[in-house]
Amino acid sequence: MQHLIYGISRALAWLGAAVLIVLAVLSVVSISGRALSQWGLGPVPGDFELVEAGTAFAVFCFLPWTHLTRSHAVVDLFWGLYPPLMKKLLIVVSDAVMLLLWVLLTWRLAAGMQDYRATQELTFILQFPVWWGYAACLLPGVFGCLVYLWRLLEDVGLARPPLRFTAPQGGH
């Protein structure tokens, strides 16, 4: 199970990176088109709408992998001063809070998607349903719930990470 969770998380992170690369190219093309409007070029229609939805999707793809590999930004000014038991307790509590927040975020994302689907609101320029962006984010969001739970199970010793992701002693 751990290889599946880590493998899908890594693949999602790569998918998020690919989406961000496409969005960067799209932005360059659109900005260049604006700058070269005197030669008949123009911006990519709906570039802001695509960047907005695509960036949200990429973030939802990155966060499960980030959490599994403990790659979040950390301020550990006093971490080295804490005894091992306190470190373990802080890791378990923070991962439990992260799981609860991720479940709450995913639940509200699903509720927002249902609301936008019911109202059939469309984006201004491209006229695609707003709920599509929510639905795209919901897939990695639901998987993220499993990932955050798995990370908590690893913390309390009920699951094990693949060997290459085992933290060295004293690490966090």
From TrEMBL:
Keywords: Cell inner membrane, Cell membrane, Membrane, Transmembrane, Transmembrane helix, Transport. Its main location: membrane. Residues 28-156 form the Tripartite ATP-independent periplasmic transporters DctQ component domain. It is a multi-pass membrane protein. GO terms for cellular component: plasma membrane. Part of the tripartite ATP-independent periplasmic (TRAP) transport system. The complex comprises the extracytoplasmic solute receptor protein and the two transmembrane proteins. This is TRAP transporter small permease protein.
